[in-house]
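Course assignment 3, question 2. Fill in each field.
Student: A.L.
Task: Predict the tertiary structure for the chain below.
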Amino acid sequence: MYILPFEANYFSDAAALWTLKLKSLRRQQPMIPEAFTQPQRLIEKLEYLQAHNHLLMAVKDGQLLGYLGWYLVEQFRGTRRKAAYVPEWGHFATEDYKTAVYRVLYRIASQQWTASGCEAHAITLLADDPSVEKSFFWSGFGLIVIDAIRTLDPISTVPSDGLTIRPATPEDAEAYCQLDEEHCRHYTQPPIFMPLKQADDPQKLHQFLIKPLNRLWLALDENIPVGYMRFDAYDFDCTEIIQDENVIGINGAYVRPAYRGRHVAANLLSAGINEYRQLGFASCAVDFESINPEAADFWPRYFSPVCHSLLRIPEQLDPTGSS
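Answer field:
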């Protein structure tokens, strides 16, 4: 087996192999859009990586056994680290050689990543392939983000007694922004330990709400927001294979600790999916950190995983990239 820079005559083989794998996942998760099952869509993506010398292939006797491609990302996940990120469509290995192919592709790619100054390695996997996940776990990676999808069928909920669930208006901006500050601080706390994110300000909320298909659903206790859920039809941060004009994305949700256990998040979700079903959307997607206990407890009750994203921080390197 040889690891080489990707050659253009293998694009069709790579696309055919990967799209077959995606079609297999779609049989389990028919809510996944069809766009990436078209080989040309993947070929265009791989051509971009090849043009930037970010695509390797494994071949044996002229047969393509696998490939691995990546982006270089500055300030990855809000840190000072530069990362190499392999998207869900950016890798594949044939079944008979899967573990060996991934092991050697990662060895060669990670040499290039280190030479490029990367201090973090990340990869997104299709959620139906535990053997690939195990291979990367054994290479030092850990689970960090889950992308998931669901239909817009109604969900059964228990009423949040004493609370009002309604869409936000511009007049809610100040109260919502205070709530979002709490949300951002939540991610810095144990056991999550993420960098502090910039909370929304009233201007950001206005820009979000003026887009006709966006909604911010609020839970209020006597007109004071105690929880929210953001539905974004234009710019949601889910894995590429589930981004589609017929998919509504959730890109933020938070409930104050004192109100947890009162079915607030479930009622916010129910209100949102009921509206988007009436608007003609087909499904709803969300991505969440597996290291966030509240998210890891809530979202899998209503959504089915599509992708798992893994992260490795090589111990040899500090956040500035020096050894």
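Instructor remarks: The helical segments are 11-28, 39-51, 98-115, 130-137, 173-186, 202-209, 264-278, 293-298. The chain has a mean pLDDT of 95.
Grade: pending
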